[in-house]
Amino acid sequence: MTTKPLLKVKGLKKYFPVKKGLLAKTVGYVKAVDDVSFHVNEGETLGIVGESGCGKSTTGRMLMRLLDPTEGTVEFDGKELTALSSEEMRKTRRDIQMVFQDPYASLNPRHTIERILSEPLLVHGVKSAKERKEKVHQFLEIVGLSAYHAKRYPHQFSGGQRQRIGIARALMTNPKLIIADEPVSALDVSIQAQVLNLMQDLQQEFNLTYIFIAHDLGVVRHISDRVGVMYLGKMVEVAESEALYAKPLHPYTQALLSAVPVPDPNFSKEEVFLEGDMPNPANPPTGCTFHTRCPFKMDICSQVVPQLTELEEGHSVACHLYNETSDNDIKKMEGSLYAKG
Amino acid sequence: MSELAPKVDGVVEAEVTKNVGPWREAWRGFRKSKVAVVGMFIVIFFILLAVFGPSIAKEGINDQVMADRLQPPSSEHWLGTDDFGRDILSRIIHGARISIWVGFSSVIGSVVVGSILGIVAGYYGRWVDVVISRVFDIMLAFPSILLAIAIVAVLGPSLQNALIAIAIINVPNFGRLIRSKVLSIKEDEYITAAKGIGMRDVRILFAHILPNSMAPVIVQGTLAIATAILEAAALGFLGLGAQAPMPEWGKMLADSKNYMQSAPWTMIFPGIAIMLTVLGFNLMGDGLRDAMDPRMKN
Fold first, then answer.
1. Which of A228, A338, B102, B251 qualifies as a FRET site for B291, CA 20 to 30 Å off?
2. Cα dihedral sign for A234, A237, A241, A244?
3. What 3-state DSSP class applies to B172?
4. What is the three-class DSSP state of A291?
5. Nearest to B20 by CA among A195, A110, A168
């Protein structure tokens, strides 16, 4: 596997203005995504997890410029996407495709599958109708459906089948990067595994790079090489999948992991419970946004915003617990936190 | 390649054998309602009358036979004659052409103009939306027939101007309908998906948004044809629409009002013609609504 970064994101921000009153005066901003930086290597899968409302979908949409970022840069394959004109961006979209969460809503109910799947080809200049048709049939088979399904309408398929169609649509233009926005959250668990396996097989066959957005850590673990954890518009921890699950550093990640059910009745674990709800992103807490719910809160947490710093090779975390100044404290914390193994 | 993904979730295979498009499905639903089908036949009957009527009723519609004036229905004049001795049946048959023409063309006019304004307002939003929507609000604040009368008064009384007036007063209805439909559809995920594959705005509008917002327009359009026919008749009755000696149903009603007691057939038959056409379109429109309303779907 190569380690060349395909996508580099730096300081990405999206502030939605909050308007009030008769004249729609801007009274504040919802900081949906606040200073997020990460990179994705070619051929790997980066999982992005977080609670609903943490800005993970917004991030995904900004990468495709379906939403324009307030600030920040997105470098894809050597090109700066935020600087492209809308026409250039439109053409670049053939290299970045998206799989959507809701397989019912993301397919036009009035179009046949053939029309839905040939649209990307048509848009990107495949003129010959015969060629389009062949390609549609080919990709239907690749995602595990049959050529004769092309004549049908979306409502004639099950959820899993529709998601396969959504994946086929994303593949039509031979993209390099696929952003999957909770692609299996709307599916039954049994179907989830099939779709995930399909996505993994396709990744190998077409050398795809995935950004896999989900709220389910179990699903993300299954598919990701690296995982980023988001909280309230910020990336709080990024690590290799194995490292993150074996040794989560950020208290939020620890809480998320301890909430994943373990299918072993004898397994007793030390659970980290979070109190309260996620704060309103229109009025985020000062300092570390997590300090209101953090069980290890220190004085500094409510004052200084912690920066994402690389603690170990490929493992970054944004938390004051791991400041160099308090090295001994870390040892202490680790001793108590990871006792569960 | 097919071994990549086993077809395990192919559960619906056996159940769905035919490929049912949304239009054909709507037709199936429509056919289930007997009343709607009756309405459709009434409409078809009047359309055929409008198309072929003049060649059936060859009698001159304006031939005045003073000796035969105000004759009751008889074997010679099936629906009687009016105060100029003109055959009422042939006038009604010719009148069908006028009413159907007014109904369809005024509604098509308002659908086209209303759709364009509604799409622009809904898709682009911002100040364009504000301007267009406020104009619609102002127009809807007037009683529609009063607005029509005012427009005809400005343009001058004639059938063509009545048609234009009816088209204008119906524009905000369709404009609003399309705007609200576009507003909801443009948030749908398949529109985001279309943008995601790199589609241009215009193509998204015409390939995705417009076809998906058409169902309520067809329903509303059918019902609006009924109202348009009624409004044309009302304007004709008031002397602001069709002018003498055109065989327009509303005008015929107005001409007969002096003979209501001595020769009621001069009034009853044009009235029945108006009522039947309007009823036909209304029944059909109701049936279409039941068949196309997404809430009725499984």
1. B102
2. negative
3. helix
4. coil
5. A110
ipTM attached to this prediction: 0.78
Cα dihedral B51→B57→B63→B67 (10° resolution): -150
Asked if B182 and B123 count as a contact pair (C-beta separation under 8 A), the reply is yes
Inform me whether the C-beta atom of residue A139 falls under 8 Å from chain B C-beta atoms. Answer: no
Nearest CA in chain A to B193: A106
- pTM for the model stands at 0.77
Cα dihedral sign for B186, B189, B190, B191? positive
pLDDT digits (tens, 9 = 90+) for A38-65: 889 888 999 999 888 788 888 888 888 8
Give bridge partners of residue A29 from the DSSP assignment.
A17
- Residue ranges and CATH numbers for the domains of chain A are 5-95+173-337 (3.40.50.300), 105-172 (no CATH)
Give average pLDDT by consecutive 10-residue segment, chain B, 298 residues. Answer: 44 50 78 88 92 76 78 83 85 89 93 92 88 93 90 91 93 93 88 87 87 86 91 89 85 87 89 92 88 59
Residue A93 with chain B: CB contacts under 8 Å: 196-198
Q: Measured between alpha carbons, how far is A300 from A160 in angstroms, rounded to an integer? A: 48
Residue B244 Ramachandran class (φ > 0 left, ψ -120 to 50 alpha, else beta) = beta
Question: Which of A120, A158, A169 has the CB atom closest to B9's CB atom?
Answer: A158
Query: What 8-state DSSP symbol labels residue B17?
Result: -
pLDDT at A309: 84
Question: What's chain A's Rg over C-alpha atoms?
Answer: 21
Cross-chain Cβ contact B1/A157 below 8 Å: no
Calculate the CA B291 to chain-centre distance. 17
Give the whole-angstrom CA distance, residue A87 versus residue A100: 23
In chain B, beta strands by DSSP E: none
In angstroms, the CA B72 to CA B74 distance is: 6
Task: State the Cα–Cα distance between residues B71 and B168, nearest whole angstrom.
Answer: 40
Using alpha carbons, select from A170, A50, A80, A53 the residue that is nearest to residue A116: A170
Looking at beta carbons, which residues of chain A come within 8 Å of B7? 144-146
Q: CA-to-CA distance for A156 and B16, rounded, in angstroms?
A: 7
Letter string b/e over residues A121-157, b meaning 16 or more CB atoms within 10 A of that residue's CB: bbbbeeeeeeebbebbbebbbbbbbeeebbebbbbbb
Chain B nearest CA to A29, separation (Å): 19
Q: What kind and span of H or E run contains A132?
A: helix A129-142
Taking CB atoms and an 8 Å limit, are B1 and A156 in contact across chains? Answer: no
A148 contacts A140 by C-beta, under 8 angstroms: no
Neighbours of B108 (CB within 10 A): 13
Beta partners for residue A5, in sequence order:
A41
What does each C-alpha distance from B205 to A119, B115, B116, B201 come to in angstroms? 14, 12, 11, 6
Name the residue with higher pLDDT: B271 or A330. Answer: B271
Q: Kindly list the residues from chain A whose CB atom is less than 8 angstroms away from the CB atom of residue B1.
A: 141-142, 205
Amino acid identity, residue A155? H
